[in-house]
Specification:
Number of helices: 6
Mean pLDDT: 95
Shape: globular
Helix content: 25-40%
Number of strands: 11
Order of helices and strands: HEEHEEEHEEEEHEHEH
Low-confidence stretches: 1-6
Strand content: 15-25%
Structural class: alpha/beta
Distance between the termini: 47 Å
Radius of gyration: 18 Å
Amino acid sequence: MAAHTANELLSPDDTAPFGLFNAAGRSPFLLIGDHAGSAIPSELGDLGVSAADRQRHIALDIGVFGLGHALARLLDAPFLHQVYSRLVIDCNRDPAHASAMPTVSDGTGIPGNEGLDTTARKARIDAIHRPYHDAIGNIISQRSANGQATVLISLHSFTPVMNGIARPWDIGILHWTGQLDFALRMLESLRTNAGLIVGDNVPYAMDETDYTVPRHAFPNRLPYVEIEVRQDAIGNASGQERWADTLSKAMMEAL
């Protein structure tokens, strides 16, 4: 099912592997969305996944595309986001790891990912994963060369119920090592909001399974935070605007 080269994988009719909004934004924040898109290269068909499943959290982080654009406008920040579904390749995973192209996600089989050989995997890496990360790295390098500070903000969303267990949090602030001060100050700021249940490294904990923040923030000694927002809170434009307002205030306070 997979093509033999990156050029064959993405046809002229397929979209580019990442989107960049407000590239000239002057704030210190660089917003990224590893799972903001749900596109599948035409060469791969539908990966054997139903239309309904392709709209679920297994395919994308619901609401992050709109949230990222709303935040970018409020903060005057660039927002660089992945266009293709994480079912094709998960850009927050090491591309060499099996989980980067899962055969099962939250109980749903992904037939189009079964039995991928080295050539098929490489085509997805070359066409989608590598250009996305090259773009992040290039923006960080350019900002540094221009004397512009960068705080890396990785935007994600989570399903309110997983494996039959309800998750009580409205938002999770994820961090691991490196320049932690910004993330911890943002956690503290959000916890002053009495209406929010704020998780510290929940519902997910940042660790060695994460790829984007460790690759770009840690070696560059950048302040960073990975944010997980409940997908049902940002499933429409009004929710995205409300959360963008809340997050932008906490981010500015954390500076």
